[in-house]
Design a protein that fits this description.
Blueprint (H helix, E strand, L loop, with lengths): L1 E4 L6 H11 L5 E5 L39 E4 L4 E3 L3 E4 L4 E5 L25 E5 L5 E9 H8 L4 H6 L3 E4 L2 H4 L25 E5 L13 E10 L4 E6 L11 E4 L4 E9 L6 E6 H11 L5 E3 L31
Antiparallel strand pairs: 1-2, 1-14, 3-4, 3-7, 5-6, 5-16, 6-9, 7-8, 8-9, 10-11, 10-13, 11-12, 12-15, 13-14, 14-15
Length: 326
């Protein structure tokens, strides 16, 4: 069973229901039957192209930036989530990524992006950065809305393509930096999946943590790819909590591998589902209406042992029980 992971809940009844299912591990938002665990080949979609049309912004310094991967987003009519990476369009527009289900409006059982209710493209999104910075962006791409418009029928794509882009206003771009907190990077987009046993790193920013940023950096280990490469099953040192949906995941080289999408209860209890970024971005470039969009690399190098984080807190977790499969 897959449960939509980490979107901030909208009422006490919803929290109680999720807490009863997942215990202290995480808040979740929807339930669905798992699709078959693996497929032999990743779907062929157009790769994102390099940007040449517009010069890069003059990014704020890493330490001085008020906006960066991992700031919170609240979608009008949806929920509060954690952003993942920064992206640029060929016209120079700057976007911040979030999970498409952050704009979901349906019941907590709706996780299929091809049928789930969602706010439309054009919906306002409040972006809350550091030191009280707040800006209003616009959701200009949603994989859910796009798949529904396209009449997408591939079950893996429908189940695991969970990606949206929020266009940032100029005042937000002026104080932004694309570097992932604590770890640095990203150093590009990973296109090879996340095989079982591979290590991964993430940064959550749920308001449930009460501003305790030391609880945000997390290490994880992959239990393997699912959905034909559209998703990855990951165990992290601490599972997501309400508001972590959309969080960035990096591989062991600092490349962007995906974003937090679900909490899984079976067959691998309390694992997280991560939507694959390379396929989600390729789908956006193929079927979206923004032209070519590319990931922005961080301005600082990646490290798996960031200063200020106890090494034991980032040691690879044990992962699934022996004999379990994703």
């Amino acid at each position: 069973m897959r449960l939509r992971s980490g979107r901030a809940v909208r009422g006490p009844g919803s929290w109680a229901r999720r807490a009863a299912i997942a215990g202290a591990a995480a808040g979740v938002a929807a339930a669905a039957v798992l699709l078959p665990s693996t497929a032999s080949a990743r779907p062929a979609l157009a790769a994102p192209t390099a940007l040449t049309a517009a010069p890069a912004p003059a990014w704020a310094s890493r330490d001085g930036a008020a906006l960066h991967p991992g700031v919170s987003t609240t979608t009008q009519g949806g929920g509060t989530c954690t952003s993942n990476f920064l992206f640029r369009g060929g016209d120079g527009s700057v976007y911040i990524g979030q999970a498409a289900h952050c704009a979901g409006t349906g019941e907590s059982t709706e996780t299929d992006g091809c049928t789930s209710a969602t706010m439309p493209v054009g919906t306002s999104v409040t972006v809350r950065g550091d030191r009280g910075f707040t800006a209003t962006g616009t959701m200009v791409y949603s994989s859910w809305a796009t798949m529904q418009r396209q009449g997408e029928t591939d079950p893996n794509t429908c189940a695991y393509n969970d990606f949206a882009l929020v266009k940032l206003p100029q005042e937000a771009v002026a104080v932004a930096n694309p570097t992932v907190p604590w770890f640095g990077g990203p150093t590009g987009v990973s296109t090879g999946g996340l095989p079982a046993g591979a290590q991964t790193f993430s940064y959550g920013n749920s308001p449930v943590r009460g501003g305790l940023s030391a609880l945000s950096p997390k290490a994880g280990v992959s239990a393997g790819d699912v959905g034909g490469g559209w998703g990855h099953t990951v165990y992290t040192v601490s599972p997501g909590v309400p508001g972590d949906s959309g969080s960035a995941f990096l591989d062991s080289s600092g490349r962007a591998i995906g974003l937090l999408s679900t909490l899984n209860l079976a067959p691998l209890p309390v694992s997280n589902g991560v939507s694959d970024l390379s396929l989600a971005l390729a789908y956006a470039n193929t079927h979206g209406e923004l032209g070519d969009v590319s990931l922005v690399d961080g301005t600082a190098p990646f490290t798996s042992t960031p200063p200020g984080v106890a090494p034991q807190d980032l040691a690879p977790p044990a992962g699934p029980p022996v004999g379990a499969t994703s």
